[in-house]
From TrEMBL:
InterPro entries: E3_ubiq-ligase_TRIM/RNF, Znf-RING_euk, Znf_RING, Znf_RING/FYVE/PHD, Znf_RING_CS. Residues 5-49 form the RING-type domain. This is RING-type domain-containing protein. One of its GO terms (molecular function) is zinc ion binding. PANTHER family: B-BOX DOMAIN CONTAINING (PTHR25465), E3 UBIQUITIN-PROTEIN LIGASE RNF135 (PTHR25465:SF41). The keyword Nucleus does not apply. Pfam families: zf-RING_UBOX. Residues 239-258 are annotated as: Disordered. Gene3D superfamilies: 1.20.5.170, Zinc/RING finger domain, C3HC4 (zinc finger) (3.30.40.10). It comes from Ephemerocybe angulata.
Amino acid sequence: MSGLCSICLNEYDEPVSIPCGHVYCIGCIVGVANETEDEATTAKCPKCRDEFHLVSPDLTYLPKKYHPFVVSPLRRIFLDESGEAEQIDTALSRIEQLERELAKCRTRLADSRENEDAARQQGDRHLSKARVYREKEKAALKEVKRLESTCERLETKCEELEDTVEELSSKMEEVELRAEQKDVETKAEQRRMQRQNAALQKEVKRLKDESQSWLNQYRSLEEENKALEVDLERMKARSLAQEAEATPRNAKRFSADSPLSDAELAFSTRVVRPLPKRRKVHVYDEGSASTFGNLNPFRKSRISI
């Protein structure tokens, strides 16, 4: 086994192995162990940072049965010189690989630092936003308290309004009952008025028929009066003619020896009846008779005889 010490980067000089398995030069590992700041009895591996003891117990005070289990922290290793070139090439390739990994780690470290700066800036922004949100939250809490007090006042007002609504509803019920009673009374009055109107219409119809009969009677009497006036005029004319023609022939005619003819006797014995008294009859025409249904029941009839 051959290789390079990872501390001095030279070939191993009296190589030793520590409990974690890594191999170093005895001088290099002793120097690392002596460089510790405190006087501790342990040291750390330069590669894996695993601790190992620097002291070994004294076998004099241990029973012999425990001697095989007591191991020194540094164990001597004997290297094989064969294949040293291959091991060197492998070590060099390993070193190149480690260098590439180191470059990647450095780039990752730079990226992480940039990300850290961005995260820090974002954190600062979040902190400023948090301050704004905290102020807004305080304002919102004040607003909530104000709204709660407003809600309480509104609830009291709502209760008062509910009481008022109940009172108004009771009053409305009373008004509706009164309106229903008034409606019933109005309907009864309308039915009474309808019956009275029907009776008045019947009365008006009867009066119209009666007036029509009186009108017909008046017309017949008027015609008879006209006939009587004509007869009277004739009688006057005849009497005047008889007076103008007063002769002995006429005297002889009206004497007891000369009897009258049937016509003259009927004319002389005819009783002249007096003229009837004029009667004034007011009759509605057909256009006004259609309005009898709307006559005032308390108004007297305009038909006069």
